[in-house]
Design a protein that fits this description.
4 strands; single chain; 74 residues; alpha+beta; 26% strand
Length: 74
């Protein structure tokens, strides 16, 4: 997790490969729906706040992911 103030306030969450993608990843990407309420709720919250998502894997098939929440400058 990383918090940055510039160029705009941002919270960035990264998960490296090895343990598989987070359970909410498929829900957030629209490629699946979690059967569990918490991962589904996390995806809904991230979506509602305009989170950007990206796969940061350099190895095809790897599960590195990045989520960023940007906030307007105060």
């Amino acid at each position: 997790m990383r918090v940055a103030a510039s160029p705009s306030p941002t919270i960035e969450i990264r998960q490296a490969a090895g343990s598989g993608p987070p359970k909410w990843w498929a829900d957030l990407c629209g490629t699946g729906t979690s059967d569990e309420p918490v991962p589904h709720a996390v995806a809904d919250i991230l979506r509602a706040h305009g989170a950007t998502k990206a796969s940061t894997s350099v190895i095809p098939g790897s599960t590195d992911v990045r989520i960023a929440l940007q906030f307007p400058a105060a």
